[in-house]
Amino acid sequence: MFAIEIPSDSMTIHQLEYVLAVDTFRHFARAAEHCRVTQPTLSMMIQKLEEELGIKLFDRNVQPVKPTAAGKKIVEQARKVIYQASLIKDIVTEEEQSVKGTFRLAVLPTIAPYLVPRFFLKLTAKHKDLDIHILEMKTTPTLAALLHGEVDAAIIASQPIESDLQGETLYYEQFFGYVSRNEPTFKNELLRTSDVNGERLWLLDEGHCFRDQLMRFCQMEQVKLRQGAYRLGSLETFMRMVENGNGITFIPELAIHQMSQEQKELVRPFAIPKPTREIVLVTRKDFIRHSISELLTHSIRASVPTEMCALQPFQRLV
Fold first, then answer.
1. Do the bridges between strand 165-179 and strand 274-284 make them parallel or antiparallel, or are there none, so unpaired?
2. Residue 89's pLDDT band (cuts 50, 70, 90)
């Protein structure tokens, strides 16, 4: 009977994980801390891999360290190898139809504060072996993290266009105006796009699809926004500005369910057609953990008002 011997100096999954950690943190000490090993151990393992391959993976003469030209190609291949290796355990877990283990879920910052509290505690209390890690990320880094295997799924506000990704609609959510009492528009029952003056508008920075969708709907190609010197603003910050008598902002439908009666007096629905976004659970096409994604989908749909689970005739997707 023949035995296959694996050379002791063959590259290992751990070595590739260390390479990815250094590429992510661009610092050997922080990469070692992330991998829960000592820095000398991590450095030695990467050096052994470099000796085996006969190339340098990282330029250690610059700070922060960076991959060499060849190192960049190795890093990209290592990502693929690590992701494919992780699927082996996922296959076994899915065959058992088991809902357990760690599940990394990215959620847009304009969705997470209003959706996650509605389902998260109830779901984790019922499935104690399921450890869901929530990461708030904008759309572009979220999709990159999915493609790189850094998260298992994501909740975003549109169907993915990337060929390696797939989306499952969770619900549809209207946009509403949030109008200060000092605004002329406050006296109107409905908000029209012609009422939206960019100079009185608080709107999120570029990179938020929430902003992009509303600008398209309101046909605002270039807007002189109120927060010209205000960077990295949040919906909650802008809501406080409006409540203190300053301008207008936009809010998603689920935010209204967390409001006091006094706050609800500042809410104005759009005239028909009402701008609406599609909230989607996105995974890679080679995703395996369907038991968890189906559980998530069911839990989220059950946590939102029934009428939000279908697109209404008076709504327009943006």
1. antiparallel
2. confident
Element (H, E) at 297: helix 290-303
Q: What is the mean pLDDT of the chain?
A: 87
Q: Which two tokens stand for residue 188?
A: 């109107």
Residue type, 267: V
CA 94 to chain centre: 24
Mind giving me the DSSP string for 151-183? SSEEEESS---STTEEEEEEEEEEEEEEE-TTS
Residue type, 279: I
pLDDT digits (tens, 9 = 90+) for 288-300: 999 999 999 999 9
All domains of the chain in start order, with CATH: 13-90 (1.10.10.10), 100-318 (3.40.190.290)
Instruction: Identify whether the C-beta of residue 266 lies closer than 8 Å to the C-beta of residue 238.
Output: no
Whether 284 and 220 have beta carbons less than 8 Å apart is answered as no
**Pairing mode, if any, of strands 101-107 and 248-252?**
unpaired
pTM (2 d.p.): 0.77
Q: How far apart are CA 318 and CA 232, in angstroms?
A: 23
End-to-end alpha-carbon separation of the chain, Å? 65
What is the pLDDT averaged over residues 163-184?
95
CA distance 296 to 116: 11
Bridge partners, residue 281, by sequence = 155, 168
Q: What is the DSSP letter of 307?
A: G
